[in-house]
Design a protein that fits this description.
The chain has 10 helices and 11 strands. It is an alpha+beta fold. The chain folds into 3 domains: 92 residues; 54 residues, no CATH class; 72 residues, no CATH class. The strands form 4 sheets. It has a 4-stranded antiparallel beta sheet. It has a 3-stranded antiparallel beta sheet with strand order 7-8-9. A two-stranded antiparallel sheet has the order 5-6. α7 packs across α9.
Length: 260
């Protein structure tokens, strides 16, 4: 090959397009309540997520040095990996993540785990009886949604002792963050959560209202909020030791699902 041919070949190679780094594909997921679109007067329940990458890993690692609660960490993760909720683009309106009910946030989290690792997560679990190491595969489909009859798009209603009908909305991500940050005891958590979630009757000071409630009414209203929260139940998974056959009780949480 003479110099002209070499030059032509080099120019041809330089003129070729540089391969583009494509964005990670998105995965669709159906939410329970989603977000309300005022323009269409309807609820939008389809969301899209993407897999976590190295940029996300470094950003999440930086959270370890901060004094953050679980709800804040979850919000941070979801704002990075949730692409859209209904017609809302998260990058343009990240506060939509805090407005989602807890169950929808958990659904999004599990879908992000699936988009990142696949539907199966493998763990090494030591048997408490024979000490043998077991490779246990957990299928994300194992975590079923709680059976709740209440429509998450409607207010919760409960008649307290004096005959008043109290209407409440389901707690969302912002509620969880504020309660975890500001309340030091379970009693304070109950007060703050009730004050934030009550919609009716109208009142000027919801916190004083929540404190003035009798214990029976307070406990009943908190139970209504807890019992009617939809979403996947992430918790204990049962397996058997491959060596001795004893039961392996594996307790999973968000951290173990995320980091293995």
């Amino acid at each position: 090959m003479d110099q002209k041919q070499q030059a032509d070949a080099l120019n041809a190679a330089l003129s070729e397009k540089v391969p583009e780094i494509k964005e990670a594909p998105t995965t669709s997921v159906e939410l329970i309540r989603g977000v309300f679109n005022k323009e269409t007067n309807s609820w939008e329940t389809e969301a899209k997520v993407r897999e976590l990458n190295g940029f996300d890993e470094e950003s999440l690692a930086s959270m370890d040095s901060r004094n953050v609660v679980y709800a804040e960490y979850m919000t941070f993760l979801l704002k990075r990996a949730v692409v859209s909720v209904g017609s809302v683009i998260v990058a343009e309106n990240p506060s939509v993540i805090e407005s989602l009910i807890i169950g929808d946030r958990d659904i999004l989290f599990l879908k992000i785990i699936e988009a990142t690792y696949g539907n199966n997560r493998e763990y090494q679990v030591a048997c408490m009886s024979c000490k043998a190491s077991n490779d246990v595969i957990i299928t994300l489909d194992t975590f079923k949604n709680r059976e709740v009859t209440h429509d998450a798009k409607l207010p919760l209603e409960y008649i307290i002792g004096d005959g008043t009908t109290v209407k409440m909305r389901l707690p969302n991500g912002m509620d969880s963050q504020i309660v975890a940050k500001k309340a030091k005891t379970t009693a304070e958590q109950n007060t703050l959560m009730l004050a934030r979630c009550v919609e009716s009757p109208a009142m000027s000071n919801p916190i004083e209202w929540a404190k003035n409630l009798g214990l029976k009414d307070r406990n009943a209203l908190v139970k209504v909020l807890l019992d009617n929260q939809p979403g996947p139940e992430i918790g204990e998974v049962n397996a058997q030791c491959a060596t001795c056959g004893e039961d392996l009780n594996i307790v999973l949480d968000w951290a173990s699902l995320l980091f293995g």
